[in-house]
Amino acid sequence: MSKLVLYGVDISPPVRACLLTLRALNLSYEYIEVDLFSFEHRTEEFHKKNPQQTVPVLDDNGTFIWDSHAICCYLVDKYGKNDELYPKDVLKRALVNQRLYFDASALFMPLRNISVPYFYHNVTEVPQEKLNNVKEGYKHLENFLGDNKYVNGDIMTIADFCCAATASSLPAVLKMDPVEFPKIAAWLGRLEKLPYYEEVNNVGVRKYIEMLKDKFTYV
Ligand SMILES: N[C@@H](CCC(=O)N[C@@H](CS)C(=O)NCC(=O)O)C(=O)O
């Protein structure tokens, strides 16, 4: 078995999605913290690992893979004892992929579009439209969940890890009202029962929310 190294920071939702996958697969890995605030990821050395200069990055024996969604898919395909977390069946996989791309584009990006300008340029005035995009994300997620236990039905997949790592972080910019979004609240409650979820997700979520709490004015 090759050596896995994950580069990341625990406030990052995509990093936490990868950590959830690594833990669900019971894989051993080294975790290397990257100090985004000292621009460690903008160095030439990190650029060689990921020219996009984002975390997470997975180093599997000298091959570098980035984008959390690609990493999670790869980990299950290569190291999963079965395909439950990322089904091989073409149709089932297409549906899981749909939720992964939803997370990448419609759930995480609205959050990133508010948090990154704050972290790097101290932008605290946020156009209402940006906040509306976060709300749209919540609404779609609530709708997708419907009466299912997980985002793709009754079986937990990596799409749950990716969407949950993001959704649990969204309250940093917009409170998740459990009355308006009861399916999301119940689903997150279900995932919280995973023995490693508190350690690899919620600790980082709390730090992230604390860093962004009361920082924004919406105009
Ligand atoms: N789609 C990417 C997003 C990665 C991303 O935006 N990561 C953030 C941390 S949450 C980052 O590295 N930000 C540093 C920067 O953009 O300078 C993924 O899922 O991995």
TrEMBL record:
GO biological process: glutathione metabolic process
Cited SUPFAM superfamilies: GST C-terminal domain-like, Thioredoxin-like
Alphabetical list of PROSITE patterns matching this protein: GST_CTER (PS50405), GST_NTER (PS50404)
One MF annotation (Gene Ontology) recorded for this entry: glutathione transferase activity
GST N-terminal domain location: 2-83
Start and end residues of each GST C-terminal domain: 89-219
Top-rank lineage group of the source organism: Eukaryota
Pfam families linked: GST_C, GST_N_3
Cross-referenced InterPro entries: Glutathione-S-Trfase_C-like (IPR010987), Glutathione-S-Trfase_C_sf (IPR036282), Glutathione_S-Trfase (IPR040079), Glutathione_S-Trfase_N (IPR004045), GST_C (IPR004046), Thioredoxin-like_sf (IPR036249)
Transmembrane segments: none
Subunit structure: Homodimer.
Name this polypeptide is given: Glutathione S-transferase 1-like
